[in-house]
């Protein structure tokens, strides 16, 4: 309604047609709607008091597309909610501190972001988190299917290659699964690929885009540097990157999480860069819901672009979640080899998640 009124008012102004009074009234319509806030949107963060949850609560409080922000954690939520709620932005903040309050936290949510669960310590793989995080994700998704079955879910908790399939199975069992609304957040892989590529190629970091496909662990993370694009002077710089450079950039992107885990030396994994990635992805979901055009991000989703049932690739976001899972484009020989090499591990992580959800 709002969009079609704006469109027809815009057309009337462009054409200058209609009765003599139509242009001023079109202007009034446009001015009225330009002054309206964006639609009401509720975002819930589960695990809001954690290393990612706290700064993510801050960034979502700063997001003008959010009108209600529900912060849930099993410990420490009241302090985080009180703190963030004093910021004078649009979103009304409420904190929920116990399992009995989880339903209230979720009810009416448009987007649920899940950074709940344990992070890695040096020497661990993401899969080593499975035993604890799988159960956490399963119980949170059971509550989502009960209290906000239509919400978009942004899964951050690791191992993402398994937690997303767990969520899908929980929703299927509850009869609420919508494959267009379940996303594994892999934005941090994209941030890393962009940053490392830009530094190597001597380009401004904000200028570069690199799709990252596959999954979110080790070799399942496959940056497509052959498709790197930059708005400045791209062609000549791309040619200057050797095969060895691309190989090293790929390895560094795949090991980016481990680089941070080791640097933090037992104090957890990436939180700040992850929060930035998580906020970009949630913002993209909200923009899509609100009807903004051309919103494309990489994400680990149900997919038929390879033989694997879940796969990360570029995804176009719209009013109903996923509008389109986009294809992989042309891959270099090195990337083709990487794609074949990642399939066995990704398949087994996906199957592990499905099995857990159905047996436990
Ligand atoms: N997808 C990605 O790219 C990334 C994923 N991660 C993952 O995000 C997760 C969270 O990491 P951090 O925030 O650093 O960990 P953290 O330990 O600092 O925070 C986790 C929070 O989850 C809460 N929690 C635990 N069980 C819960 C439950 N049943 N319901 C609600 N909250 C619960 C804890 O109380 C804690 O506040 C980890 O699994 C980590 O591996 C981390 C970085 C990047
Ligand atoms: O490496 C980890 O455990 C956390 C993570 O997923 C990342 O930083 O990409």
From TrEMBL:
One of its GO terms (cellular component) is mitochondrion. Its EC number is 1.1.1.37. It comes from Spirodela intermedia. Keywords: NAD, Oxidoreductase, Tricarboxylic acid cycle. This is Malate dehydrogenase. Residues 1-23 are annotated as: Disordered. It holds the Pfam family Ldh_1_N. PANTHER family: MALATE AND LACTATE DEHYDROGENASE, MALATE DEHYDROGENASE. NAD(+) binds at residues 47-53, 73, 133, 156-158, 274. One of its GO terms (molecular function) is L-malate dehydrogenase (NAD+) activity. One of its GO terms (biological process) is malate metabolic process. It is an enzyme of class 1 (oxidoreductase). Substrate binds at residues 120, 126, 158, 192. The keyword Oxidoreductase applies.
């Amino acid at each position: 309604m709002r969009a079609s009124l704006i469109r027809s008012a815009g057309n009337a102004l462009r054409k200058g047609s209609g009765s003599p009074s139509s242009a001023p009234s079109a202007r009034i319509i446009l001015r009225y709607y330009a002054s309206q806030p964006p639609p009401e949107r509720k975002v819930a963060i589960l695990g809001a008091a954690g290393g990612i949850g706290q700064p993510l609560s801050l960034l979502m409080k700063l997001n003008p597309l959010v009108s209600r922000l529900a912060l849930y954690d099993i410990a420490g939520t009241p302090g985080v909610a009180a703190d963030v709620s004093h910021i004078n932005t649009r979103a009304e903040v409420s904190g929920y501190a116990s399992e009995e309050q989880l339903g209230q936290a979720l009810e009416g949510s448009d987007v649920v972001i899940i950074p709940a669960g344990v992070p890695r310590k040096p020497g661990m793989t993401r899969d080593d988190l499975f035993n604890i995080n799988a159960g956490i994700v399963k119980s949170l998704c059971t509550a989502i299917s009960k209290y906000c079955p239509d919400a978009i879910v942004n899964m951050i908790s690791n191992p993402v290659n398994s937690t997303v399939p767990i969520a899908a199975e929980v929703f299927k069992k509850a009869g609420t699964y919508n494959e267009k609304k379940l996303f594994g957040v892999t934005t941090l892989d994209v941030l890393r690929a962009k940053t490392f590529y830009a530094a190597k190629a001597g380009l401004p970091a904000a200028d570069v885009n690199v799709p990252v496909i596959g999954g979110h662990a080790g070799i399942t993370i496959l940056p497509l540097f052959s498709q790197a694009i930059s708005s400045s002077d791209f062609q000549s710089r791309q040619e200057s990157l050797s095969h060895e450079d691309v190989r090293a950039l790929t390895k560094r992107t795949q090991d980016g999480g481990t680089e941070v885990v080791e640097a933090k030396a037992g104090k957890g994994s990436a939180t700040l860069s992850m929060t930035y990635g998580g906020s970009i992805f949630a913002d993209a979901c909200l923009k899509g819901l609100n009807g903004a055009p051309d919103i494309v991000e990489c994400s680990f989703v149900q997919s038929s672009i390879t033989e694997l049932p879940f796969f990360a690739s570029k995804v176009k976001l719209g009013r109903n979640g996923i509008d389109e899972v986009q294809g992989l484009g042309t891959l270099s020989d090195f990337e083709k080899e990487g794609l074949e090499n990642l399939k066995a591990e990704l398949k087994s992580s996906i199957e592990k998640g499905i099995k857990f959800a159905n047996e436990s």
